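Need a sequence for this fold. Nothing fancy.
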């Protein structure tokens, strides 16, 4: 092994090596603390189609920080990884591959062969994101990795489905559902994204069947008029009281439809009359149910017009819209049009506009499941962080509709329902029934549909631990401790896990739900392919290292809020790592002799602490207390900022400088004690930083001396705990006072550009002179002060700085090299005279003053006044400095 860290910080040289050592040693397994209390996180399973993006990096970093922190605190910490089969996304990928490579559709090869291709695709590509997670440093227990379609999860899904079905909470029925004509599948309400589109309202007249004018109705979707079954008006609307109960004619179609009274129409919107199309709108469907209206389908599963549309049959919905409106206008039925913004529902996967359709699907009754899930959050069994997100949860859960769980796909958990081929009897069971309970037939076929992906991932907190079997992991690690997730899937996933877990396990699945925001670009925009502003975390890791990426994310995060990524932030994180690297190299260099052997390091019982040691140890001790509290409260930004300041300022900029005299020029006893304290402080700093920057801390740790009881890896060491015995308040006050004085003197130097090497004589007026004297030797060595005098009155011709109870004076004669200052002033005089002449010449030039904008001219006048003022002061100062030289 090398004697010291490499000269330059290059994370590529050790990050992959260290991760391999951790993983191969079993350090990620919770059994490293076998008898301890459990701490559990289940990884939100990324899709097998996914590649690591900044959202995954944020999610994974937060989970890893918590897991490493709790592991070091002595918990049996399990971070359980896994991936999601992602029904729609994966099927799309496999279909695209089939088309590109074989020129075939999935129907041409059949379900069985298609599923073989899907599993092959999963084996080839499904592990990519796990490999990428490892690059980030994720300390998951990969030996427990799960997949939502593995044998155990598949068993759990069937068990859960059958239990809910037998309790009457799952049913099959014809209802209006969201249909994606491109994916060819039903979607639940929360899989539909509402996006504003520029559209129109067309106002059409429906003539009265009795020859009257009839009624005018506005619609944004005229192609659905073929399925109209009524016109609804509000019963309180005086305009339409005489027409309710009569019929009107559906334009061009010729079918009579009734005018009905219903609370749904808003008299203040449009004409106050609404066309009712139960097969194409959820609100219309509810009206239709109340009035017993018929269901007519005019748009099929491919978004083509059906036979009821006459000559428009087979046309695409938008093609039909164009032709149909033109024909209605030609026939005189179009009254007017309005340009409006229309919120349209889009498929969350392919982003095509969905169509409401009447379809026979499987549903979960949500009200009975939602009520105990709402109560669990109200009682605090599960707490959202930040707390404001519980309002979003309540809003959705209290207004929840039945969940459509069937999908018209092949890849996924196939619904465990079997149909008798003789009599059609349906049997819900884990396996194919031996015979029909109704007719005794032995021939069955299984339901063709698969379950919504979220049905299986809703079981993730307990199915991954072995449920429905009563496993040791389930007993120990359920319920889990924290769920880390983005605010965008509270409805998709978090709520479903809560009500599914309460139903099957009798308790909420996690104590805390830590909500984080999105990682946006430097302008605050969402990262997207269309904007070309996406940031690849793997590129960042390649250029800056995983630790820099992690620290940047953690240093800028605020629970529930979005984070802006910038190159400056990632460079600052890398600079911090570089600062620590160089400070650690200095420490190791001073712990070894020229041959690489350890120099004498005092044993604990023999250590003679100096004031600077006690200050540093006390500062470290207090920081450990505060950082621990921040971590427990999920305030990682504050924790990371404190560890940054502790290392950069307290350790690197102050403590190392303060102990150099003892390390280099002290007695053997002083050197040995200084080395002991240096090792103690550096080791504890590495422990505090480790959850944030695991790679660099582990690499530095490997070069430090190991004492009895030391673990193989830093990641398994004990987290620093606050110790009241390390208060050392007196020394802290002495050192902090000395540091404030040092900084003040350095600022005075900087103001007059006095060289750091110039020795100064400081005069100090202090309320507590003894306190200042106790730290005087630090001031003299660190501020390059040759002498300190204590005074009771102000000092003339001196620059001063004021601190609470202290005034510092430094004579001008000490600060300035008058000959150098005189030469500088002459140069400054020449420069300012040139600037004045240039500005006056410009302002006296008629071409400039007649053509330049007024604000440009005024800016030039302001500059001239400034130059004249500076020249005047320079001219005043020159003779004063000249007199000092003589």
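Here you go.
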């Amino acid at each position: 092994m090398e004697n010291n860290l490499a000269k330059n910080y290059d994370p590529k040289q050790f990050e992959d090596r260290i991760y391999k050592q951790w993983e191969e040693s079993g350090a990620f397994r919770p059994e490293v603390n076998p008898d301890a209390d459990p701490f559990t996180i289940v990884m939100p399973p990324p899709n097998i189609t996914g590649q690591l993006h900044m959202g995954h990096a944020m999610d994974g970093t937060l989970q890893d920080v918590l897991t490493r922190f709790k592991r070091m605190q002595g918990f049996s910490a399990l971070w359980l990884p896994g991936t999601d089969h992602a029904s729609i996304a994966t099927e799309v990928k496999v279909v695209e591959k089939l088309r590109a490579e074989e020129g075939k559709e999935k129907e041409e090869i059949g379900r069985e062969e298609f599923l073989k291709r899907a599993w092959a695709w999963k084996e080839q590509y499904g592990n990519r994101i796990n490999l990428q997670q490892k690059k980030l440093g994720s300390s998951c227990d990969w030996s427990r990795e799960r997949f939502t379609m593995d044998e155990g999860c598949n068993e759990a899904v069937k068990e859960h489905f059958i239990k809910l079905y037998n309790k009457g909470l799952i049913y099959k029925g014809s209802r209006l559902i969201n249909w994606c004509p491109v994916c060819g599948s039903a979607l639940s309400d929360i899989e539909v994204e509402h996006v504003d589109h520029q559209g129109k309202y067309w106002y059409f007249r429906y003539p009265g069947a009795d020859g009257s004018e009839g009624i005018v109705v506005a619609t944004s979707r005229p192609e659905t008029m073929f399925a109209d079954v009524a016109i609804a008006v509000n019963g309180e609307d005086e305009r339409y009281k005489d027409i309710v109960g009569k019929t009107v004619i559906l334009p061009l179609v010729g079918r009579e439809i009734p005018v009905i009274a219903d609370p749904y129409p808003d008299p203040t919107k449009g004409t106050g009359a609404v066309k009712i199309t139960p097969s194409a709108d959820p609100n219309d469907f509810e009206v239709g149910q109340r009035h017993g209206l018929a269901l007519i389908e005019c748009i099929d599963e491919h978004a083509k017009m059906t036979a009821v549309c006459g000559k428009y049959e087979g046309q695409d919905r938008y093609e039909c819209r164009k032709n149909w409106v033109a024909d209605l206008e030609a026939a005189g039925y179009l009254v007017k049009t309005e340009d409006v913004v229309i919120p349209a529902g889009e498929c969350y996967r392919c982003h095509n506009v969905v169509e409401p359709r009447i379809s026979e699907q499987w549903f979960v009754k949500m009200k009975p499941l939602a009520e105990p899930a709402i109560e669990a959050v109200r009682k605090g069994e599960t707490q959202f962080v930040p707390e404001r997100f519980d309002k979003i949860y309540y809003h959705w859960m209290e207004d929840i509709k039945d969940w459509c769980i069937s999908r018209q796909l092949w890849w996924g958990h196939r619904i465990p329902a079997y149909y008798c081929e003789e009599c059609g009897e349906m049997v819900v069971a884990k396996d194919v029934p031996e015979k029909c309970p109704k007719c005794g037939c032995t021939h069955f076929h299984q339901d063709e549909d698969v379950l919504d992906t979220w049905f299986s991932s809703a079981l993730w907190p307990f199915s991954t631990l072995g449920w429905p079997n009563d496993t040791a992991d389930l007993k120990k690690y359920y319920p889990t401790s924290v769920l880390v997730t983005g605010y965008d899937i509270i409805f998709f996933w978090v709520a479903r896990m809560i009500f599914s877990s309460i139903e099957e396990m009798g308790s909420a699945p996690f104590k805390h739900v830590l909500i984080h925001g999105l990682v946006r670009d430097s302008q605050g925009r969402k990262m997207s392919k269309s904007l070309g502003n996406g940031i690849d975390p793997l590129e960042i890791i390649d250029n800056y290292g995983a630790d820099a990426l992690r620290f940047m994310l953690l240093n800028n995060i605020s629970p529930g809020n979005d984070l802006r990524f910038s190159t400056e932030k990632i460079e600052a994180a890398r600079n911090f790592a570089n600062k620590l690297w160089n400070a650690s190299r200095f420490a190791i260099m001073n712990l070894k002799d020229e041959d690489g052997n350890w120099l004498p390091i005092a044993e604990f019982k023999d250590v003679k602490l100096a004031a600077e040691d006690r200050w540093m140890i006390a500062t470290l001790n207090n920081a450990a207390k505060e950082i621990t509290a921040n971590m427990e409260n999920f305030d990682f930004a504050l924790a990371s900022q404190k560890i940054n300041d502790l290392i950069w300022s307290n350790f690197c900029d102050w403590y190392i400088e303060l102990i150099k005299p003892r390390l280099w020029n002290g007695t053997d006893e002083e050197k040995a004690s200084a080395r002991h304290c240096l090792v103690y402080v550096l080791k504890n700093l590495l422990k505090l930083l480790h959850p944030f920057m695991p790679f660099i801390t582990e690499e530095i740790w490997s070069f430090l001396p190991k004492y009895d009881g030391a673990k193989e890896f830093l990641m398994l060491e004990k987290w620093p705990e606050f110790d009241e015995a390390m208060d050392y308040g007196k020394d802290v006050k002495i050192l902090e006072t000395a540091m404030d004085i040092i900084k003040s003197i350095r600022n005075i130097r900087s103001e007059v550009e006095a060289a750091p090497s110039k020795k100064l004589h400081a005069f100090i007026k202090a309320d507590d002179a003894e306190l200042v004297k106790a730290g005087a030797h630090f001031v003299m060595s660190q501020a390059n002060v040759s002498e300190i005098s204590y005074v009771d009155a102000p000092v003339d011709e001196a620059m001063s700085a004021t601190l609470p109870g202290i005034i510092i004076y430094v004579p001008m004669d000490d600060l300035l090299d008058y000959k150098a200052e005189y030469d500088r002033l002459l140069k400054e005089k020449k420069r300012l005279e040139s600037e004045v002449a240039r500005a006056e010449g410009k302002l006296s030039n008629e071409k400039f003053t007649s053509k330049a904008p007024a604000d440009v001219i005024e800016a030039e006048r302001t500059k001239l006044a400034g130059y004249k003022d500076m020249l005047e002061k320079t001219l005043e100062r020159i003779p004063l400095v000249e007199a000092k030289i003589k």
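For context: The radius of gyration is 38 Å.
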